[in-house]
Write a structure and sequence with these properties.
The complex is a heterodimer of chains A (265) and B (301). Chain A has 265 residues and is mainly alpha-helical. Chain A has 13 helices and no strands. In chain A, 45% of the residues are buried. In chain B, helix 3 runs parallel beside helix 5 and helix 4 packs across helix 5. The longest helix of chain B has 16 residues. Classes of the chains: A mainly alpha (265), B alpha/beta (301). The interface between A and B is medium-sized, with 24 and 30 residues.
Chain lengths: 265, 301
């Protein structure tokens, strides 16, 4: 299993390095502008208050100039969760579908390792990738927060990181499940991207559209972001729902992959 | 080849059937392969050769029937059994982002074996540069990588699907030597190929599969004896049709300059007996190649 875990990492090392670089650059740029936001705190808040209420609600701008408000708007409410979904989704969707697409599944699946161990190795690699990215983000912020004068507790940052990683985990589970059904990586990525965008759209509009109130409790984005962990700390029930959902999808993916007829290109 | 006397069955297909929904894959495929045997598996494109192999290897689920390899139910996942199997897929896809050595060491690692020396030796024999990126290798060199991965762990049973595809004649000869050595140490080889001369040269027995069903299984020697042979007979005086009335097993008779040309199916004893009576001075026999046998058989269906 370790060999396959390491191979999965090796296969994605270049794209993962690119994601890391992008994330660090993005956070560094965002953190670097925070001092100027603090300087013009009152002017900026007046400016933001002038935005229409629906826009402020959609982008959660109510407390933009505070550390939690700034990080929530700029990073933890959209950018980071979507990035983690993109990474987990790509690794998950490609785990088996890409092997079939490339024709390498035939040999891999006749080696002395069971199908579930193959899938679990790849799952562990994908989960470790989103975890590393999540903690890379928090580490970057922790290193820069005092330098830029940002006031935010480590516990709140940790809570937001756990929520974001949980979202990534949930959608990684969907990606593995889609990949275990599909014979093409592209279609599996399409499924996970579609679900992520729809749930995110519903979550974003839920502040405005009353009709979404009934479905919000079932929306994974609501579980991860709705608890506002940067302001209120750990949102355990939401995180647990995401983790449980992710585990269910992963188990279903293993069961489906066990009985799947492997295709050839 | 070294067909053992005790006829240990190592691979057994027992009424193995695979349907994709309502589409036929294979139907009722039944045959045994023995220890120390090269078993040729022939059929036209889409006949079901690859489906049969992929089913027994557990890559696709059977619809009915059973299969055993080395006495173990092959249709149930079994890591211990897979350690003893080598497989060269028809589409020999490898991980392009590895060097040949890196890829082969990955496969060896998955088998929990240290095969560095074996890999190097086989690469030398097949004239393969192990340190090149697979992405940059020609089709033939990629095939060499796949051949090495199939043989390197000294498996007891090998499934080779079009193994020499893309290999040049010199390398094919070395491949045949490797195959010969493998069989001599007692391994069984199921060789699926469309290069009939290769199968004819290497296999002890063959099965022909057509439209998903096995239509013929026999030893090549026996098949050739049963097959149509072209015979030319030269006499010291002209002969005609009347001289050969009542001789069994002959057809397509023609007379050219007093010589008889005909096709014999089965025993040629009666024909030769009559020819001797008529003072035959020369007999030329042209045996059917496996290709002709195959075409006769599949073409007549």
């Amino acid at each position: 299993m370790t060999i396959l875990f390491l191979k999965t990492w090796r296969d994605h090392r270049k794209s993962f390095a690119a994601w890391c670089f992008t994330l660090i650059l993005l956070i560094s740029i965002q953190m670097s502008i925070y001092p100027s936001i603090l300087k013009s705190k009152s002017t900026l808040q007046q400016f933001l208050d002038a935005y229409p209420e629906p826009i402020r609600k959609i982008f959660r701008m109510q407390d933009y100039t505070s550390g939690p408000g700034f990080l929530s708007t700029e990073l933890y409410s959209m950018m980071l969760p979507l990035l983690l979904i993109a990474v987990g989704g790509t690794w998950g969707a490609g785990a088996t579908a890409e092997e079939e697409d490339d024709g390498t599944a035939d040999l891999l699946l006749t080696l002395p390792i069971s199908r579930n161990r193959i899938l679990i190795s790849k799952m562990l690699a994908a989960i470790s990738a989103i975890t590393v990215l999540g903690f890379m983000a928090i580490l970057n912020i922790l290193l820069l927060r005092h330098r830029v004068g940002m006031e935010i507790g480590t516990d709140k940052l940790l809570a937001a990181t756990v929520s974001n990683i949980s979202i990534g985990f949930f959608f990684t589970g969907i990606a593995f499940l889609a990949g275990s059904f599909s014979r093409r990586k592209g279609s599996a990525i399409g499924v996970v991207t579609g679900i992520a965008l729809i749930t995110f759209l519903i979550y974003s509009l839920s502040a405005l559209v009353k009709n979404f109130d009934s479905i919000s409790p079932y929306n994974p984005m609501q579980w991860g972001l709705g608890g506002m962990p940067l302001f209120k700390g750990m949102y355990i029930s939401g995180d647990l729902k995401l983790l449980a959902g992710g585990v269910i999808f992963l188990v279903l993916a293993v069961l489906q992959f066990e009985r799947k007829d492997i295709s050839t290109p | 080849m070294n067909l053992s006397n005790d006829r240990d069955v190592t691979v057994s297909f027992d009424h193995l059937t695979k349907y994709y929904g309502s589409t036929r894959g294979i139907e009722d495929v039944t045959f045994d392969v023995y220890r120390g045997e090269v078993f040729g598996f022939l059929g036209p494109n889409g006949a079901g050769k690859t489906t049969a192999i992929r089913t027994i290897l557990g890559l696709i689920n059977s619809t009915s029937g059973s299969a055993r390899i080395l006495g173990v139910d092959a249709l149930k996942p079994n890591a211990e059994l897979r350690k003893r199997i080598g497989y060269l897929p028809g589409i020999a896809a490898t991980y392009d982002n590895y060097t040949a050595r890196g890829y082969l060491q990955f496969v060896a690692g998955m088998r929990k074996l240290d095969l560095g020396e074996v890999i190097t030796k086989l690469a030398e024999r097949l004239d393969l540069d192990l340190d090149q990126q697979i992405r940059g290798l020609s089709k033939g060199n990629r095939q060499k990588v796949s051949v090495i991965q199939a043989f390197m762990h000294s498996p007891d049973v090998l499934f080779l699907d079009e193994p020499t595809s893309g290999l040049d004649p010199l390398v094919q000869r070395e491949f045949e030597k490797i195959l010969d050595e493998t069989v001599h140490r007692g391994a069984s080889i199921i060789l699926s190929s469309h290069v009939l001369s290769e199968v004819e040269h290497l296999a002890d027995r063959i099965a022909i599969i057509d439209k998903g069903r096995i239509v013929l299984i026999d030893e090549i020697v026996v098949l050739k004896n049963k097959a149509r042979k072209k015979i030319d007979l030269l006499f010291d005086k002209p002969v005609n049709n009347a001289d050969f009335i009542g001789v069994p097993n002959i057809e397509e008779i023609t007379f050219v300059n007093g010589a008889l040309k005909c096709v014999v199916t089965g025993s040629e004893y009666e024909l030769l007996k009559r020819a001797v009576e008529l003072h035959v001075i020369e007999v030329r026999t042209q045996e059917s190649s496996l290709e002709e046998i195959f075409l006769d058989f599949v073409g007549s269906r």
